Each structure stands twice: as structure tokens, then as C-alpha cells.
Amino acid sequence: MAEVQTIHSADRPSTLALAAAVLALVLALALVWQSAKLFQQDLAFTAVETEVSFWGRGDYQPDAKTRARVGKTLEGLLTEVPAHPGYLMLAANYHAWQAYWAESPELEYDFSRRAEAAKNAAKQSRPAHPGNRGQTTQ
Fold first, then answer.
1. Measured between alpha carbons, how far is 87 from 75 in angstroms, rounded to an integer?
2. Which residue, of 15, 80, 82, 94, has the greatest Cβ tally within 10 A?
3. What are the residues whose beta carbons fall under 8 Å from the beta carbon of 11, sequence distance 6 or more?
4. CA dist 52 to 45, 49, 134, Å?
5. Which residue in 95, 105, 59 sits closest to 75, CA to CA?
6. Which DSSP symbol is given to 3?
7. How does pLDDT run across 33-87, given as a tens digit for each residue?
8. What Cα–Cα distance (Å) separates residue 101 from each residue in 17, 50, 88?
């Protein structure tokens, strides 16, 4: 005859242990999601930063479509993390280039103003930056 095993309540996980396991799983999934999001943002930033770093080198001049794509990517990154100093400095560089290529003095002024604002915001987002204490860098 087959022996029937009975499960005693002491052998089953408690409700508290089950809740703790579910909470741990939810937290792990949240960390995975956040890590994937940060990784995707870092890849987008690196791609755009690399593109902008080549602007004006040698004979390379990006076309309007590339400049628009870079601007849209930067806008998305700054929407996600508005005070990220790296994103802000890249935005300053991007706007400075847009001012350089502007077809009218009004556009040039607008882009130059945006570049200066982004540079100042980047500086302010780094409280330990010597320029924020009235000192100069050497």
C-alpha cells in the first residue's frame, strides 16, 4: 500500500514568508527594469555624444536629419533626467553648434541663449564645482 503523507501546517511556508518572497521578487523586478532603463539611456547618450563629438572635425558636417535626430534624443534624455550634468553639457554643445549653423541672426541668438542656459544648468547641478563657490579652476 502506498503511504499517504499528510502535510502539517508547520511544514508549509507561512503567509508572512510568502509575502516576503513576493515582495523580494517585486523589488528584484523593479531593479531589473530600472537597470534596463538606465542602460538604454546610457546607450542613447553615448551615441549622441559620439555623434556631436565628430561635428566639425575634418570635412564632417552632419545633415539636417542627423541634427534633428540628435536634438530629439537629447530632448528625450533631458525629459527623463532634467538635471543630469552630462546631458546638459551635451545640450549646450548641441545648441552652440545649432547657433553656428543658424540661417538667421534671430535663430543664432536663440540657440546661443539655449547653449548658455544649458551650460549654466549643468554647472549648477554639480554643487562641488569650483565655479559654484566663486573660485576659478586652474
1. 9
2. 94
3. none
4. 11, 5, 30
5. 95
6. P
7. 999 999 999 999 999 999 999 999 999 999 999 999 999 999 999 999 999 999 9
8. 63, 19, 20
